[in-house]
Design goal:
Blueprint: H1 3-27, H2 33-53, H3 68-87, E1 97-101, E2 107-111, H4 112-136, H5 146-151
Antiparallel strand pairs: 1-2
Helix pairs in contact: 1-2, 1-3, 1-4, 2-3, 2-4
């Protein structure tokens, strides 16, 4: 499997996993506030990185205060935006460099493939935090393991 195809698969998984977390939060009668904050951060950070990749201005704060409905809208939008972006990439473009400023205003340059890998890993990291917080509050967290998604045919 080539790298671009692998990344497309990872973003399909990421979209599914975000939807699962949203459903889990929505099903919990009294979810703690922090998991929703973390999901909002995941979605905002994904949009921020897409904006950096496409040289667009930052449209959301890094730590927004989203409701479940706002998270759902962001997931739906990102579920269209990422495949559109990835669909226009060629394998050669993955090694191209993107210059941007981080949230502290520091200038950086990173390869497209490194940014894409970071986005998926960053989201997965925070989904793990959400699962831990949900479990600690007595709720059942969403089952978002990659291998589960593959085994169930949820990600091809």
């Amino acid at each position: 499997m080539e790298l671009l195809e692998h990344l497309c698969r990872q973003f399909a998984y990421d979209d599914w996993a975000s939807r699962e977390v949203l459903a889990g939060l929505g099903a919990s009668p009294h979810p703690p506030a922090r998991p929703l904050q973390l999901l909002a951060h995941i979605l905002s950070a994904e949009r921020l990185w897409l904006e950096r990749l496409t040289q667009q201005p930052q449209s959301l704060p890094v730590w927004p205060e989203f409701s479940l409905d706002q998270c759902e809208a962001q997931i739906a939008a990102l579920g269209k935006l990422w495949p559109e972006y990835l669909g226009q990439l060629s394998p050669a473009k993955l090694s191209e460099k993107v210059t941007y400023k981080n949230s502290k205003g520091e200038p950086w340059t990173s390869a497209v493939e490194d940014i894409l890998t970071h986005v998926v890993l960053h989201s997965s990291y925070h989904r793990g935090q959400i699962a831990s917080l949900m479990r600690a509050s007595g709720a059942i967290p969403a089952y978002t393991d990659f291998i589960h998604a593959v085994r169930q045919g949820l990600v091809e």
